[in-house]
Each structure stands twice: as C-alpha cells, then as structure tokens.
Design goal:
This protein is α+β, with helices and mostly antiparallel strands and 524 residues long. The longest helix has 20 residues. Strands 1, 2, 3, 4, 10 and 11 form a six-stranded mixed sheet that branches. Strands 18-17-12-13-14-21 form a six-stranded mixed sheet. The protein folds into two domains: 296 residues, Nucleotidyltransferase, domain 5 (2-Layer Sandwich), CATH 3.30.420; 111 residues, Sandwich (Substrate Binding Domain Of DNAk, Chain A, domain 1).
C-alpha cells in the first residue's frame, strides 16, 4: 500500500513517499524536478497543463493561467475558462492530480492515499477546501496536517531523535504565499505543538511584487511617455518571472541585472542584495513581529530557549531572514531542507495514518505497527497540536443591544478542546435562538464582529411563555482533525441542535460533479 505526503504550496508543490528502508524520499516530476510550480493553464476545455509548462504559458496566454490559487482556498473566488467556471478547490485538484500522476510514473505505484499539508494558520474553511480538492482529484485524503508539524517530523527523522531528550524547536516557515511560526517540543516520537501564529498572505510572492514595482518605476523614469508596463499582461507576466529569478539569484549573489523589454524599449536595471533588503524590510519585519508573539507565548508556556530554529520554505534562503532572527532574537537559525521538508514530513505522517487505519488490533506497548503491503514496521507518532484560531458565537448585550463575539475555544488552546458555557435569551416569550458560530479572522482574537467570520449557524427552539434570560447551553468541541462540533441544548425540554462545522465552498454533490469533469480532461 503506497501512501504519499503532498506539500500543496502557493508557488511550488512537492510529493514524497517512504522508501523501501523507511525513509522519506521526494518523487521527481516528469520534467525531472523535485518541485512543481503550482500553476495551472487551461489550454482548452479538455486540456489542462500544470507545472513549469503552465508557468511558461503565462507569458503568452496569461488570461488562461492561474497562479497563487492557494490564497483563495476556502473562499468563493470563481474563475471562468472556455465556458466553464472553476472554484479554487477544482483548480488545486488539478495540481494534485499532476503530482500524483507524475509520482506514479516515477515510482510505478498508484498514488491514492495521501496526506496534504496546509499552513498552520489555515482555518476551517481553508482546511476543508484543501480536503475537497483532494477528493476532486480522486484521492483518499487520510488527513490534512499543518506544515510546521510536517517539517518537525522530517527534522526528527533526519536527526535521529528517537531516544533523545526533550528538544524545543521553533519552525519559521516562509513559503511562496504564506507565513507561519510555530513552537514545538520533540521527545522521541512525541511531538507537541505549544503555539503557532502566522499570516495567510505573506510570502515570497510579496517579495517578488516589491521587485516588480521597483523595476516598473525605473522603466517609467527612463521612458515617461511609454505606456505603463503593468498595463500589458505579457510584460507584467515576464516582469514577475524576472523578479522571482532575481530574488533567488540575490540569495547567493550581490548583484543581478534585469532587462525590461516593453513596446520596443529596453532598460537594463541592476538590482543588489542591499536594495532588495531595503525594498522588503517591512515584510521581514512583519514576520519578526509574528515570531515575537509566538516566542512570548511559548515563554508563558514554559519554553524560553530553543535547541533549534528551523528555516523552512523557499523564501527562507534569503540571507535577510536569518540575519533578522539572529540580530533581534539571538537565534542561530539553520536551513532545514527548505523546499522539501514539508513533503517528506507529510509522507512520514501518511505512513503513520496508514498504519493506524490498517491495524486490526490495539496499539502495542512499544508503539510499533506493521504496515501492510510495504514490508515495513512503523513506530507511531504521538502528536499534540493546538487550535490555529479562536471560535465562538455571536451574543447580544441585553442592556445596550451591542453585538459581540464570545470565544469558547481560543487560538493556541490544546487539542482536542471541549468547552461548555451557559447563555440566555433576550426577550420574554422568545421562541428560538439563532446560533451563529464565528471564527477569528484577524491575527489577534477580538470580540468585534468585523474581526470574525461566520462559519456556520443553526436555530435552537425555546419552549413557549418563557421569561427573558431563559438559559441554554452551547458546547464547542474542536478535534485533532480540525472538525468543530457545536451542540446547543435547551435544558428543560432537552431540545438540541448539533452543528458540525467542516465548511467549504462545495457540497458533496458539487465535489462529485467536479471529479467527473476533471476525469474528462487531460492533465498534462
């Protein structure tokens, strides 16, 4: 039974599996690369191109190319190509299909059972959308796991920490489109997440944007009477490719020259590492602020020093990242397999999940399970994680009619979490209560409505002729898999509603239909 770990990244994706000796190994794509650009080109109604060829097509046919779709996961952001509308889940499914098809060509084994990674800061909608993308791709998604957890699993395997003592690890994960910072402890096969924080729209592509704007400004200065380069989709696409190449080059070089070509005009622009750091200093500062919040919370929870600070994600290759952490925190960070660690850790976790699913008996005392059809034995991981965001309900102050949010589960509460609180009706004779389940939307928990998002709702019936402030209870349970269950109970009659909050933009019927549509297309 082959199981795979997939790092479904904002800019690049990667797939790995466990090899014959039990070590994670990355499977190269048909182009011979370890990573595949997360770019989709809708060439025609029945032909979809994914990866480097799609990225190349963006120069000539940008209107039919989708990039950075991961930032839209969990949101209704439809795109129309060749007479059909595609959701972010459907577009992501084509990336997943390309990854597993190439993995089959590389390894000879059908890829069906997978674990897919997501940023630690993804909420319920984004996680569920990722799960549905896997379903549309025809995969059995064993679980969706946070990227820092996967990176830490890979680190533990590579460092041989099986019998070591406690280690405190800070994972600084700056990918192509998202940023997370997470504190974990590792003791043998026990991995505990203490706290996590992050930003959904902060990553290497934002650094690229700063380079693009600088290049455009230089071109405008040289040719003030020529149309704006960003008004031409072909020029803009080429500028973004050049910006990415410049960013990568300046991680190893001090200077790099970009030739801007637009409407017959050519302007060479020299970029330096110092200039790049000046243009993007505020972006690095944002990651530092988030890291500071995480470090301070870890200290409150008993971890004030770190055995390792791991840099994960391609954007951490920029020297400014390590320099900022060293200067401001005194850390000595190390690049830990930045492009591949997440996929490798996901493969380890996938094997763990597969071992449990196929086990017919209780977990042995030594934690060792046989993995059917692999010839491998596997010592299970014990993973404890935390809530990425706070969850609560909307309530109304009876004296002022002010509406606000009461959070029952808070960001960084240990999972599984179960909390029950009493609430009350507002008016005499009130016959029902609308339960609105809210998810923290901002970086910091807030009771203000605009800083939270409705993720589900239900209506609880109240018996007739009851006075104002008639009591009822709400119980929130957030499981390890990220499924939030809300049970509201009217205690006199036992009237009860249960809301399982595992949301996403697509119903199961829509997922099934999308799978059929994709099966009729060639994914190249």
């Amino acid at each position: 039974m082959a199981v795979y770990g997939i790092d479904l990244g904002t800019t690049y994706s990667c797939v790995a599996r466990i090899d014959d000796v039990g070590r994670p190994a990355v499977l190269r794509n048909l182009e011979g690369s370890d990573t595949t650009p997360s770019v989709v080109y809708f060439e025609s109604s029945d032909s979809v191109v994914v990866g480097q060829s799609a990225k190349d097509a963006a120069v000539l046919d940008p209107e039919h190319v989708v990039q950075l779709v991961k930032r839209d996961m969990g949101h209704v952001v439809p795109r129309e190509f060749h007479g059909r509308t595609y959701t972010p889940e459907e577009i992501s499914a084509r990336i997943l299909r390309k990854l597993v098809d190439d993995a089959k060509a590389f390894s000879g084994d059908e890829a069906h059972d997978v674990v897919i990674t997501v940023p630690a800061y993804f909420g319920l909608a984004e996680r569920n959308a990722t799960h549905k993308a896997g379903e549309i791709a025809g995969l059995r998604v064993l679980d969706v796991v946070a990227e820092p957890v996967a990176a830490a699993l890979d680190y533990g395997a590579l460092e041989g920490n099986e019998d070591g003592g406690d280690r405190a690890i800070l994972v600084y994960d700056l990918g192509g489109g998202t940023f997370d910072t997470t504190v974990l402890t590792l003791r043998g096969r026990e991995l505990t997440v203490l706290c996590t924080d992050g930003a959904k729209e902060l990553g290497g592509s934002d650094f690229d944007d700063r380079i693009v704007m600088h290049l455009v400004e230089r071109f405008r200065e040289r040719f003030p009477d020529v149309a704006d380069p960003l008004s031409d989709p072909l020029t803009e696409t080429q500028l973004r490719r050049d910006a990415e190449e410049a960013k990568k080059a300046l991680s190893f070089r001090e200077r790099y020259i970009v030739r801007i070509m637009h409407q017959g005009m050519v302007e060479p622009v020299e970029l330096t590492r110092d200039l790049l750091e000046e243009l993007t200093r505020d972006l690095v500062d944002r990651t530092v602020d988030i890291t500071r919040r995480t470090v301070e919370l870890a200290a409150e929870r008993g971890v004030s020093a770190f055995d390792d600070v791991l840099l994960v994600g391609g954007a951490t290759k920029m020297p400014a990242v390590a320099a900022a952490l060293r200067t401001l925190f005194g850390f000595e960070p190390r690049l830990h397999n930045p492009d591949l660690a997440v996929a490798c850790g996901a493969a380890l976790y996938a094997l763990d999940q597969a071992a449990f699913i196929t086990s017919t008996s209780a977990l042995p005392a030594d934690g060792v399970l046989d993995v059917p059809e692999t010839g491998l034995t596997h010592r299970s991981y014990e993973i404890t994680t935390v809530a990425s965001r706070g969850y609560g309900i909307k309530v109304t102050d009876p004296d002022t009619d002010r509406e606000y949010i009461t959070h029952l589960v808070h960001a960084n509460d240990r999972l599984p979490a179960s909390v029950t609180e009493d609430f009350y009706t507002l008016r005499d004779g009130q016959r029902q209560v609308q339960i609105q389940v809210m998810e923290q939307a901002g970086a910091v928990e807030s009771e203000e409505l605009q800083h939270n998002t409705v993720v589900a709702q239900g209506t609880l019936k109240i018996p007739p002729n009851k006075p104002a402030r008639w009591p009822f209870q709400c119980a929130f349970t957030l499981g390890l898999s990220g499924l939030l269950t809300v049970i509201a109970t009217e205690q006199e009659t036992g009237e009860q509603i249960e809301i399982s909050v595992q949301i996403g933009g697509l119903s199961q019927e829509a997922v099934d239909e999308a799978r059929v549509v994709m099966s009729r297309q060639r994914i190249l």
